[in-house]
Amino acid sequence: MRMIGWLVLVVTLVVQAVGLYSPTVPGPQDGPPGLDKVGHLVAFAVPAAVAALLGARWVVVALVVHAVVSEPLQSQLAPLRQPDVLDALADLAGIAVGVAVARALRRRSVIMGG
Fold first, then answer.
1. CA dist 52 to 40, 55, 59, 106, Å?
2. pTM of the model
3. Fewer C-beta neighbours within 10 Å, C or N terminus of the chain?
4. How many of the other CB atoms lie within 10 Å of CB of 43?
5. What domain of life (predicted)?
6. What is the DSSP string of the chain?
């Protein structure tokens, strides 16, 4: 079962990288304002939650570093994309949400006898 968790983590990280570094902004271009921030939050929350559930704290630390460097790096790798400090903040918020969800799930599992 643990191997499946690691596979899920790798898949979420690949999806994250494709979304962050694609030449154009993924998703609908004329959606509600701030929709891209939700995308950033989710792109970091899911792998952070999976990593935390796996006990892979080093992955969570790597995600924090990636959140900080991804915006400037993104503008170098995808020149049509503009760096945005709010995107980086959404990334960091996503990591916090992901870790909090993982902790809540672990607590619930302990409480429920899992």
1. 18, 5, 8, 10
2. 0.89
3. N
4. 26
5. Bacteria
6. -HHHHHHHHHHHHHHHHHHHHSSS--S-TTSSTTHHHHHHHHHHHHHHHHHHHHT-HHHHHHHHHHHHHHHHHHHHH-TTS---HHHHHHHHHHHHHHHHHHHHHHHHHHHTT-
